[in-house]
Amino acid sequence: MKRRRRRRRIEFEFHPKYLWIFCIILCVVLMFVSYRFPERFSGVKTFAGNVISPMQRGINTVGRSISDRLQAFRDVKELRKENEQLKSKIEDLTTANQQLTQDKYELDGLRRLYELDAKYMDYDKVAARVIASDTNNWFYSFVVDKGTDHGISVGMNVMAGNGLVGIVSETGKNWSRVRSIIDDNCNVSGMSLESQDTCIVSGDLKLMKEHGVIRVDMISMDASFKEDAEIVTSHISDVYLQGILIGYIQDIRIDSSNMTKTAYLIPAVDFERLDEVLIVTELKEAYDFE
Predict the structure, then answer these.
(1) Are 148 and 171 contacting, i.e. CB atoms less than 8 angstroms apart?
(2) CATH assignment of 125-280, given 3.10.20.30, 3.10.490.10, 2.40.30.10, 2.40.10.340?
(3) pLDDT (tens digit, 9 = 90+) per residue, 26-44?
(4) Which tens digits make up the pLDDT trace of 76-100?
């Protein structure tokens, strides 16, 4: 028997670096030949240009698109960062502006107190800050941060704005309660600063809330009250010191009995907003507050 000869497979190992070397040599040769014999390779160049140019344009278009998108992404990222920085600056400026507004408001309040103190310089006074009020927007009764330790006692007159606020009705060691002239149970003996004619200014919280005025009663028929006349505390009051501005009279008319006149009064104090007050540290006379 004949033995079949088995063919052995010859395995070649081809390292990639040899392929790279071959490609480099081929490129160098082609470059040399194309440079040495340009006319023979003009057709090849034209063909290569026709094939490669569209590819280059496509690659350039895709590259520009990707570059534009990346740039847009970077721009958006930068804008977001700048936006966050601007928001932080706006918050800081808003806080600073609020603080300046608060400081200005407090300065204006202190300036008004100073002017009021100078207006009634004959009276000794203590400045106090409002720390609590009844549960509404009107300061008909409120608490301040000065009390008996500061020489405050029941019956002392309280001022703010341009004139009279009310009277101290209750005291503690470091606090006092003030009942204002707009309270329904408050009656102040007043008089016209010009004519000296007297009247009674009565608190009326409902009228104050709805129309910004309180009542004026017991005006004599022959009294020469004028519109917008200044009404001050009178000399016959046993509670309030004389000459403190209460407000300005409005709408004078004869009452239903045809014996006296009535009117309304715009208070000299803003009873919707009270932060600081002046307490006159002297009493007109011994006073038992009810």
Answers:
(1) yes
(2) 2.40.10.340
(3) 777 767 666 666 666 566 6
(4) 878 888 888 888 878 777 777 766 6
